[in-house]
C-alpha cells in the first residue's frame, strides 16, 4: 500500500502515534465543525506543509495522494450544486430544460464550496496521519486508548486481507493478460467479469488458509505484538493547540467578512 510505504519512510515514523493521533483528531474536528472555505483550504495547506517539513516526504507525494479523492469530491459537490428550478427563479447560471431551469443559486454555490473545501481539509488531516503512521502503530495506539479489543482485531485482520485480495486480483489479471484477455472491448468485459467472480472465491480460500495458519501458531482471538521504541513527541501538543487556534481565528475572520 502506498501510504504505508511512505509512512515507514517518514521522519515521524518513530514518534509516538498518540500525539499524531491527537493532532489529527483535533484539527479534523475543528475543520468539520467550522464548515468554512478558508478553514478547509488552510487545513489542507498546513497538513501538506507538516507532511513535507516534519515528515520529510516530497511535496509531490502529498499532491499525488490529494488528487485521488478530488474526482469523488467534485462529483458529489456538483450533485449538490445543480438543481432544477421553476422558470423565473433568480439563479446565477442556468440552462432551460423543459420549461424549467437547470442551474444553481448563490446559496447552492456557497454550500457546495464549503462542503468541497471542508472535505479537502479532512482529507489533508487523514493524510497527515496515514503518511506518518503505519497501521500497526495506529492499532497499538488505539489499544492504549482502550478502544474495544474486538474492533482493533477486526481492523488488523481486515487490513491484512486487503493485501490478500489485491494480490489475488493481480495474479488473475496477469494470467488473463498473458492470454490476451484484454484485447478488444468484448473480450475485456468478459475477462473483467471472470476476474470479479473469481477473485473473491480465491481470496476467501487464501484467507481461510491464513486463519488456519494463525490458529496453528496459537491464535486465541488476539494478535500479540511488541510495542516499538517511540520518541515521546509531545512537542506536537503545542502545535496542535496553535493549529486549532489558527483555524478558529480564520473562521471568525471569514464570518466577519462574509456573514
UniProtKB/TrEMBL annotation:
<dbReference type="InterPro" id="IPR003339">
    <property type="entry name" value="ABC/ECF_trnsptr_transmembrane"/>
</dbReference>
<keyword id="KW-0472">Membrane</keyword>
<dbReference type="InterPro" id="IPR052770">
    <property type="entry name" value="Cobalt_transport_CbiQ"/>
</dbReference>
<keyword id="KW-1003">Cell membrane</keyword>
<keyword id="KW-1133">Transmembrane helix</keyword>
<dbReference type="InterPro" id="IPR012809">
    <property type="entry name" value="ECF_CbiQ"/>
</dbReference>
<keyword id="KW-0812">Transmembrane</keyword>
<dbReference type="Pfam" id="PF02361">
    <property type="entry name" value="CbiQ"/>
</dbReference>
<feature type="transmembrane region" description="Helical">
    <location>
        <begin position="44"/>
        <end position="63"/>
    </location>
</feature>
<feature type="transmembrane region" description="Helical">
    <location>
        <begin position="70"/>
        <end position="88"/>
    </location>
</feature>
<protein>
    <submittedName>
        <fullName>Cobalt ECF transporter T component CbiQ</fullName>
    </submittedName>
</protein>
<feature type="transmembrane region" description="Helical">
    <location>
        <begin position="21"/>
        <end position="38"/>
    </location>
</feature>
Amino acid at each position: 500500500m502506498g501510504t504505508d510505504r511512505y509512512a515507514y519512510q517518514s521522519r515521524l515514523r518513530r514518534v509516538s502515534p498518540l500525539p499524531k493521533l491527537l493532532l489529527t483528531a483535533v484539527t479534523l474536528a475543528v475543520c468539520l465543525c467550522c464548515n468554512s472555505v478558508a478553514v478547509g483550504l488552510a487545513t489542507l495547506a498546513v497538513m501538506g506543509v507538516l507532511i513535507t517539513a516534519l515528515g520529510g516526504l516530497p511535496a509531490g507525494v502529498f499532491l499525488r495522494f490529494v488528487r485521488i479523492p478530488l474526482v469523488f469530491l467534485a462529483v458529489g459537490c456538483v450533485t449538490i450544486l445543480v438543481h432544477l428550478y421553476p422558470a423565473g427563479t433568480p439563479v446565477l447560471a442556468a440552462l432551460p430544460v423543459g420549461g424549467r431551469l437547470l442551474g444553481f443559486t448563490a446559496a447552492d454555490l456557497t454550500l457546495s464550496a464549503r462542503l468541497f473545501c471542508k472535505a479537502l481539509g479532512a482529507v489533508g488531516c487523514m493524510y497527515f496521519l496515514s503518511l506518518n503512521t503505519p497501521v500497526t502503530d495506529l492499532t497499538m495506539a488505539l489499544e492504549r486508548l482502550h478502544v474495544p479489543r474486538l474492533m482493533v482485531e477486526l481492523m488488523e485482520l481486515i487490513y491484512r486481507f486487503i493485501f490478500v485480495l489485491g494480490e489475488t486480483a493481480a495474479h488473475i489479471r496477469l494470467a488473463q493478460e498473458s492470454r490476451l484477455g484484454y484485447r478488444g472491448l468484448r473480450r475485456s468485459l468478459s475477462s473483467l467479469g471472470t476476474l470479479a467472480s473469481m477473485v473473491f472465491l480465491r481470496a476467501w480460500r487464501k484467507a481461510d488458509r491464513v486463519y488456519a495458519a494463525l490458529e496453528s501458531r496459537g491464535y486465541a482471538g488476539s494478535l500479540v505484538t511488541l510495542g516499538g521504541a517511540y520518541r515521546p513527541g509531545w512537542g506536537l501538543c503545542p502545535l496542535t493547540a496553535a493549529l486549532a487556534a489558527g483555524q478558529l481565528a480564520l473562521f471568525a475572520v471569514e464570518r466577519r467578512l462574509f456573514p
